[in-house]
Structure formats: structure tokens, C-alpha cells
Amino acid sequence: MQLGQRSAGRFWASATMSSAPSSKQALDLLLLVQQLKLTKRTGWVQKSVKGPESIADHMYRMSIMAMVSCPPAVDRDRCIKMALVHDLAEAIVGDIPPDAGVSKEEKAIMEQDAMKEIKTMLGDASFEANEIEELFNEYECGETAEAMLVKDFDKLEMILQAHEYEQAQSMDLQEFFDSTEGRFSTPTGKALAGEVMARRAACKQGESGGS
User: From the centroid of its chain, how far is CA 118?
Assistant: First the structure.
């Protein structure tokens, strides 16, 4: 059993110790999540992509990746949940790019503070609040099989989106592919990334042949 699965069991066992979030608490979170639907991913904005995806768009396709691409040895449901919450803090802090002048340490503190705010919003003692916090922290630590796979899905969704923008808008987004080269850590992530790169290469070859 993976660490993530054991941790999830602890919270399930204690779920009856606290009531679920009230309707008001749940709606407060749902209204906050609207920011993820409205906030465009900074990397695409900086490259002047037309109609760039939102943070919520990114998380949604990652969740579908987890639904259809998890190997049997990995907790599929946990990966889906992790994909859904891994960028939840960005509803408060926004999508901070690497060149924003914010260190990794500062960004981590900002996001942890945001998650504490979200946990309080749902009720600190509720199972739901603790589950979201645990999934976020597990992803950030990146040590369980589930977290490593979801981190690969995060990078994979980005290069897939870059490939789509290149095709739809005749752009060169090579830097996004360069930033993930050699950084996929799971067999599933490597296989899917290889498929994206093969399709990108085929498209480029087709463009060359047609010119």
C-alpha cells in the first residue's frame, strides 16, 4: 500500500469525528474556485497566446489524464483528486511564473498560507478540509507514487497544450518543451510525453513537406 493510500485511510477513519462543511462553507469555497476559471495561465499570457487556458482548464484535463492513464499499482481515485486540488492555492495567490522575482521558498509559503485559509473556510476539523490539505501537501512533497505521477501529468498537460497552440496559432513554443526535457519521472509520464513529442514531430515534418 502506498503512503498516500495509508494517509487517506487515516482521514476516512476519523471522518465521523467532525461534521461536513455547512452549505455556507461549501458555497464560499465554490465561489473562490471561480477564480481558477477566470485566471489565465501566466505562461501563455506572456507568450501572447490568443484565448489562453485558465488554471481550471489545466486542472480539468489533468484529472482526465489521471482517470484514463493511471497504471494498476497507483491509486487512481487519489490521483484524480490530487489533480483537482494541486493548484487550488492559485485561487488566492494567482499563477506565479518562475520569472516573477518570487523565490521557490516564498512561493511555497504563500501557497501554504492560502491552503490554511481554504482549510479554515471549510472548517479546520472537517474531513473534507483535511483531505484537501493532505492531497495538496502530498503533491508538493512529490514522494508518493501518486504525487510523482500527477506531477508528470502537470508537465504533460503543459506540453500537450503548447503543441495545440503551436498548431492552432502558428507559434513556436519550444521553450515549454525544453523546460520539461528529462524531467518526467514515471513510465506512464515518459510514454505519454513521448507520444506528444512524436505527434509534434510529425506535424512539423508535414509542415516542412508542404512548404
Answer: 17
- Distance (Å, whole) CA 39 – CA 127: 28
What's the grid cell of residue 72? 494498476
pLDDT in tens, 92-106: 999 999 889 999 999
Neighbours of 191 (CB within 10 A): 13
CA-CA-CA-CA torsion sign (170, 201, 158, 69):
positive
Instruction: Identify whether 47 is part of a domain.
Output: no
112 is in which domain, residue-wise?
23-37+53-197
pLDDT for residue 210: 59
* Residue at 8 is within a domain: no
Helix axes 127-141, 104-122, angle to 10 degrees: 170
Residue 211 lies in a domain: no
Give the distance from CA 79 to its chain's centroid.
Answer: 10
Q: Residue 211's pLDDT is what?
A: 53
Residue 63: CA count within 13 A, CB half-sphere: 15
For residue 12, is pLDDT > 60?
A: no
Number of compact structural domains in the chain? 1
State the CATH number of the domain containing residue 163.
1.10.3210.10
pTM value is 0.90
Asked whether residue 13 carries a pLDDT value surpassing 80, the answer given is no
**Residue 190 belongs to some domain of the structure:** yes
pLDDT digits (tens, 9 = 90+) for 189-204: 999 999 999 999 999 9
Residue whose entry in the numeric block shows the C-alpha cell 494517509: 7
